[in-house]
Amino acid sequence: xxxxxxxxxxxxxxxxxxxxxxxxxxxxxxxxxxxxxxxxxxxxxxxxxxxxxxxxxxxxxxxxxxxxxxxxxxxxxxxxxxxxxxxxxxxxxxxxxxxxxxxxxxxxxxxxxxxxxxxxxxxxxxxxxxxxxxxxxxxxxxxxxxxxxxxxxxxxxxxxxxxxxxxxxxxxxxxxxxxxxxxxxxxxxxxxxxxxxxxxxxxxxxxxxxxxxxxxxxxxxxxxxxxxxxxxxxxxxxxxxxxxxxxxxxxxxxxxxxxxxxxxxxxxxxxxxxxxxxxxxxxxxxxxxxxxxxxxxxxxxxxxxxxxxxxxxxxxxxxxxxxxxxxxxxxxxxxxxxxxxxxxxxxxxxxxxxxxxxxxxxxxxxxxxxxxxxxxxxxxxxxxxxxxxxxxxxxxxxxxxxxxxxxxxxxxxxxxxxxxxxxxxxxxxxxxxxxxxxxxxxxxxxxxxxxxxxxxxxxxxxxxxxxxx
Length: 469
Known about the structure:
Blueprint: H1 22-29, H2 92-109, H3 115-130, H4 135-139, H5 149-155, H6 161-164, H7 173-181, H8 186-198, H9 202-208, H10 219-225, E1 233-238, E2 245-252, H11 255-262, E3 264-271, E4 274-282, E5 296-302, E6 312-317, E7 343-345, E8 354-356, E9 399-404, E10 423-427, E11 451-458
Antiparallel strand pairs: 1-2, 2-11, 3-4, 4-5, 5-10, 6-9, 6-11, 7-8
Helix pairs in contact: 2-3, 2-5, 3-7, 5-7, 5-8
């Protein structure tokens, strides 16, 4: 006799709340992984099962699927789209464990510029909020091989122009993670800085500097500049060759005013596998050694996670009026700089670190511009004067300050002083015209109140004549 399964049998010993038989639920459970609480999309044909929290079926958000044993599971109204569901019986610890697993899968698969990443993070945020958990704190835990998810998002991040220039159609994974991680703790910031260093991603590092989270300005600078991010422009170029040479162009906004009021300007950058800090400061009045108290100084040091190194370098400041007779109009965004491959080391001068060969489009008769006037390394630098232009006055000498290490530079483990082995410090007065940078109306400060300087360096023991062969 065939008995209709829809009607209960008399005197049936089976409990009323017993789960349905295997035959009844098997067609549904083929695409429902209750132990992972993930979307119920069927796996693609031919794919093997995985223990991962994040499957390919999650690339498009599926609707919520109710439990097979719930009333009205088949065919009742549609719920809000989500990436996973947690029953009310789930504990905060279980939610935290699942979110950590999802974050691990997210950075491992690195779904960059995918709507899936934002959807997963939003769902995690909603679930954490309903269980009184902070997603920001979870994302900043060093839960993945001793680092945060943000660290791995930087390490695995493609260095494509669209991400660097902010022209991508949707936020990349790092941006999405940062959005849900704020406010960042100092430990997390150090972890992200470390990731930029191990990948030598100077452009990303400078992009992150535009966030108050990573480069908070002092209260004095915030008052002077009217903003909470450092406006200074830093451009680094590695010089081809095995000498470990590099050059850095700086454009420092309101240099004199910030030095007069704030007494310090710090500029950080990544070059040759190290994190550097070039710092302008006023020597304290109570120091007993080093530069004269009250004098303006410049120092160079390496920061956290940087290996020790020797360095020989010089800081150059050219007089803007010696380049152009009049201030040029702003360059259009389409203006580009000659390639870095045009840079060639030279030994033509006892203290010449670099010379610049003309680009391929230049006339053979055009002489190669020499540092520091060449625009080869800074697209914001004014172009050379036209033949019919003449300087307003005889060019003054370029300020040149040599920064060389007497011992290997090491990362400071304490608050470095102005004259110790952890940094190279020289007074601006060591240069013939260096002291003039602190005087009002200095011809080395451009009319827009910006100081444009250039650091030329190579990693190695200093030589008597400072020549790179």
